[in-house]
Amino acid sequence: MGAPTVYDVAKRAQVSIATVSRVYRNPDTVRSQTRDRVLAVARELGYVPSGNARGLASRSTGVLGLCFPDYADPEVEDDGAADDPEQMLYADEITRGMERAARRHGYALLIAASLAGGPESLVAKVAGRVDGFAVLARTVPTEDLEIISRRLPVVMIAGPREIDHLDHLEVANADGEYEMATHLIRDHGLRRLAFLGGTTDSPDAEARFHGFQRACAAAGLAVPDEPDTRGNFTQADGRAATDRLLQRVGQPPEAMVCANDQMALGALQALERQGLRVPQDVAVVGFDGIPLGRMVRPSLTTVTQPMRKLGEAAVDLLVERLGEPNRSPRSMLLPVTQTRRESCGCPSPAPEAGLSRLG
Amino acid sequence: MGAPTVYDVAKRAQVSIATVSRVYRNPDTVRSQTRDRVLAVARELGYVPSGNARGLASRSTGVLGLCFPDYADPEVEDDGAADDPEQMLYADEITRGMERAARRHGYALLIAASLAGGPESLVAKVAGRVDGFAVLARTVPTEDLEIISRRLPVVMIAGPREIDHLDHLEVANADGEYEMATHLIRDHGLRRLAFLGGTTDSPDAEARFHGFQRACAAAGLAVPDEPDTRGNFTQADGRAATDRLLQRVGQPPEAMVCANDQMALGALQALERQGLRVPQDVAVVGFDGIPLGRMVRPSLTTVTQPMRKLGEAAVDLLVERLGEPNRSPRSMLLPVTQTRRESCGCPSPAPEAGLSRLG
DNA sequence: CTGAAAGCGCTAACAT
DNA sequence: ATGTTAGCGCTTTCAG
């Protein structure tokens, strides 16, 4: 009881398999009478063309891929908030942007997030099934990427230009953090700033720290060599890192600049638990612009990335390169915006959404 | 300059293609010495297994699919809010739930939204590349589904049980709307309610209307045969339908019960433009629970669907059936919740998110 | 406009 | 442990 194939349809419709194929690929090259007969038989038999066979024979799939790391905060998954749309994070927004853009270009999107187990399998899984794909930084070992990108268009999102012949997309991490830190120093008059960094293998987090350093230097403050503390980007890490920081001797900082929003949220929690008020005692700022940041109290001041646009740009680059495989590698830097809310000491912003914005 | 294949690797590593294949599928069945040699050659050559060939030969892909209609409100896409996460709609939440669940089960997710052009191609595209897939109601012609589902596990989300041998998922539309309408009537003392319906081909919208009718009946009010006006689910439709309603002779209704949130948002705009205050002059309620509903002013009272759970349940059903192909079709009804905000006349709720909820 | 035939790259028995 | 041999279902010249 295997699924019907071109052969079954061909036989039943009294034509060759080539004709069946044509009916689906170039309907116009088949006499309409023949075509109708084939189509009729096809539905009668429940024939569905095999995408795999098609891809194999034609060397193209009409599918674009996206690989991203398993960013999910475990604690977020487990509690009752699992159904809260506000939890949506970085990768989801990029997915969304890519899906939209892919659709416009007539492509479907294959999404794969790495999970415990070989990352090898992750890329292989995707790479073998798409015409090209995007990778979020730190998802795939550079070496694997190096190999695969020799065979397939790959665009690297939000990482360093690890491989120089890849198309590459990034946001203005350093400049964005520079501007944010400068805001804290100049507009709020803060001087003792602490930086809650990410892991050293994250180029984005490092770039943000560099921006922070530059701001300190520009303001004539001491320039730290290293972040005051680090975490692995989750809320839990942010809490832990903040606790560690507070336990150190000396007074708490006047401001905490966090490498991403999730850790900033964790910092908010840790500070609250220590009885410190934000922003009166300590200002807190994040980076990313996740939706949850605007819902918490105090609402989170942050540097907002154009996440959706990243996804769209990735698809655009992919499609471009598919059309022109030998074009020289292209790199784009997308701008970020400053989102000033309560946690830095700025006044609570006016309602951010209202009917006026809807139409 | 074709991509290297098993043959190239086999020749260079002095083994047969079968061995190369084994190295990737069952590494343990190959002597480690041989394996290392093959792997070395593979990376040297830049070999990446073809997912298509694999799928063809093994009849399984490790990919699950999702088809949904192109719900996007055009006006939402076009304006500057394109990067606003609050715009996220129904299908996106389901996507998210499916992606998460698929990942847990070791599957990747293929997403395809219909676009102008043959829906035929949409299903074919997905169906031929996945081990099973989910379809949002009204995305794919029933006839096509009927055919495809004979060959592949399909779960239908949020539609009627159009095809009785399909696994099927829906939410408590009628009960949810019944409860909402009853709230308006009993708790707010409203009596002249108008229903802004969807298109007649949407079973969800119709079910909601039935729930509305039941509430009217239960309260001893006149029971309408038909929605007072209808729209095609977008904000623009909601505005237009509301304008039409208001232009009709007679006084405006005391409440507008809308078949979905987007139209309710449109209704809010139309009422505002007519100088009517919500909820003082007219109460407005929606259905779905899209994020934007909580950001608008007045915030939207609505019946919230467990969208993410729908996605997860879809994957679970798919995986179950993949494991047990002949299991009898299963149908699940997911509960909805009442979300009372300002637009029905309830007091503005306490801040919905705070640190307390985060850990 | 239609048919014949040669693959596309891999997996899966079945041998050895 | 490894090799041989068939396909998997379709696209694609090349003929006719």
TrEMBL record, chains A, B:
Q: Which organism is it from?
A: Actinophytocola xinjiangensis
GO-annotated molecular function: DNA-binding transcription factor activity; transcription cis-regulatory region binding
Xref: Pfam families: LacI, Peripla_BP_3
Q: Which CDD domains match?
A: HTH_LacI, PBP1_LacI_sugar_binding-like
Supply the alphabetized keyword list.
Answer: DNA-binding, Repressor, Transcription, Transcription regulation
Give all residue intervals belonging to the HTH lacI-type domain. 4-58
Name under which the protein is recorded: LacI family transcriptional regulator
Stretch list, region Disordered: 338-359
**According to the UniProt entry, where is the signal peptide?**
none
